[in-house]
Amino acid sequence: MALPQTYTREQRIWHWTHWGIVVAVLLFLVLPILVIVPLSFSAGSFLSFPLPGLSLQWYQELFSSDPWQLSFRNSIVVAVATTLLATFLGTLAAMGLNRADFPAKSAVMALLISPMVVPIVIVGVGIYFFYAPLGLTGSLLGLTLAHTVLAVPFVVITVSATLAGFDYNLVRAAASLGAPPVLTFRKVVLPTIAPGVVSGAIFAFVTSFDEVVVALFLTGPGERTLPRQMFVGIRENISPVIAAAATLLILLSILLMATTELLRRRSARLQGRE
Amino acid sequence: MTVSTATALTGSDLKRRLRRAEWRGRLRAIALVVPLLLFLIFFFIVPIARMMWLSVDNSELPSTLPRFAEEIQQWDPTETPLPDESVLALFAEELRAAAEARDLAGVARRLNTEVPGFRTTIMGTARRLPDSPEGSWSETLIGINEDWAEAETWLLLRRASTTVTPYYLLASMDLRMGAEGGVEAAPRDQAIYRDIFARTFTIAVGVTLLCLLLGYPLAYKLANLPARISNLLLILVLLPFWTSLLVRTTSWIVLLQREGPINQALQGAGMIQDPLQLIYNRFGVYVAMTHILLPFMVLPLYSVMRGINPALPRAATGLGAHPFTAFRRVYLPLTTPGIGAGCLLVFILSIGYYITPALVGGANDQMVSWFIAFFTNQTVNWGMASALGSLLLVAVLIIYWLYIRLVGVERMRLG
């Protein structure tokens, strides 16, 4: 990137300092995440550099240990159930809320999004007190319902964002051509908002899959989830197994992030914003 | 076609139909929102409302020893050192009945929160109570445990005998009910909560400022690069946003530990002799939390800066302003919506942090959330947990309200 010839010395110095700051901040953002990856291949049993040698033993331990297997299964079950429920409820609500004359629109929206800003410990404690007399603590169903509360705002936000650019004349056009509402929804509305729905679903999945605080309150040893298992591991005896689990989670997040990025761009292109 | 229908209808008829159609549409829209609304009311609003109620709930003793709870209210410690013999007889009768029904756990827990060790006193007394008094009831009770001779003990029971109590909420502000009524400061060894709230606030403000300091130059550069490059760099901002909180916290533990790469590098460069303590203290909390919350600052800043016309600061320099002046007088004011949105979002998220400080902080770096979890899981003092939770919730709701007023709820975007 050539600098304009007219730049003064002062401007040049500032230009490069600014780039220096930007690179430093980007490294600060990314490097700490990547530092854990090589440690998962360590032949030693401590999380420190330099590596005494390379080995896949920690992955082997991860895949053969019962607690890790159980926690992984539990996390998948809860996250998938949460995704389905949150996506269904959130998409419906976002479609309803998108009407311009919805009564008390901002207030309802603020309420639907509030689980995102209320400290998660408060949600955890409230639901724990609430579940205790109902006998819902220590069940995957209870955890799923709680995770749905936390995940639903993400679906509402992403679907609302795609709907904001939706041209309702398309619906009117379909109706005037004689399409019944269900067909209009399936053929006209859904294809347009699909990227938002899928992004929302991915956000919901990640919210549940990463969630540890509510899981700490609500689950016993039989229902422990992956984050809970990691939390206990970090606390009690931090070993490269944690690094192996973390590496797999990083891979998963890169995959999911790439998917939503592609969807977001597709949706922006469809709406002619890019 | 529309023309012919329109002529067949009078104007008012048409208006009515239009209104009806609008109402039908609105009802359909409401029907779409209702399932989620009901779900949230049942699994989010009601549990939190119940938690807030638990912060004043004091029903353990009144529901277990109902008649005694009513009678002891009449007792005036300035007139008689102990409650009347009839009140003591009621106490003994109801206490024995509750012990036989194995119904004393709640009362014992409630009293124990205020006077540690009182669980043993009341359980032991209940076990050893005879059917009829040996002499008077006061002598019998004092014979079992000397504590019953103290007016303090009966005052404790009297405080526990009202159905609602300000005790927990006062305690979480380092206050308590005085013996003669009125509110007074809590004894110094119990007065820890103002410090905890102040610490929580300090950490949240510190993390917000650090995020702004690091996030502003980054967002500024990203917003002024060609879209192709900025999209690529934006992915580097989004990656931590997507990575599990526990993964990122683990990474910081690895990096900052005594034998970690940072200490090794500093020692290798000869800058320090002994490894620095970088973790399990406030420094570790600031670093890890700033890392985790930085994307929440960069994204709103970036989206506001993208919308700023680059010709404006250029026009200012063209008119002779120093680039720095142009930035300060033109660009910076235009980015205030982004600064406001980012700061409020980061502050609101950081004030409730629990996991990260718990893993990378020391004993003196734990925030309010940690104490809420501690009272819930470790000491089963639900009253204290609820009171601290209610205060934290009120603080968060005030900031959320500010966010909605200043930024707008529609501006809450992801990625």
UniProtKB/TrEMBL annotation, chain A:
Pfam families: BPD_transp_1. Residues 72-260 form the ABC transmembrane type-1 domain. SUPFAM superfamilies: MetI-like. It comes from the Bacteria. The chain crosses the membrane at residues 21-41, 76-97, 109-131, 151-171, 192-218, 238-263. PROSITE patterns: ABC_TM1. Keywords: Cell inner membrane, Cell membrane, Membrane, Transmembrane, Transmembrane helix, Transport. InterPro entries: MetI-like, MetI-like_sf. It is a multi-pass membrane protein. CDD domains: TM_PBP2. Its main location: membrane. It is found in: Cell inner membrane; Cell membrane. Belongs to the binding-protein-dependent transport system permease family. This is ABC transporter permease.
TrEMBL record, chain B:
Coiled coil: none annotated. The keyword Cell membrane applies. Residues 197-403 form the ABC transmembrane type-1 domain. It is found in: Cell membrane. The keyword Repressor does not apply. CDD domains: TM_PBP2. It is a multi-pass membrane protein. It comes from the Bacteria. Its main location: membrane. InterPro entries: MetI-like, MetI-like_sf. The chain crosses the membrane at residues 29-53, 196-220, 232-255, 283-304, 338-360, 380-403. Belongs to the binding-protein-dependent transport system permease family. CysTW subfamily. This is ABC transporter permease. It comes from Aquibaculum arenosum.
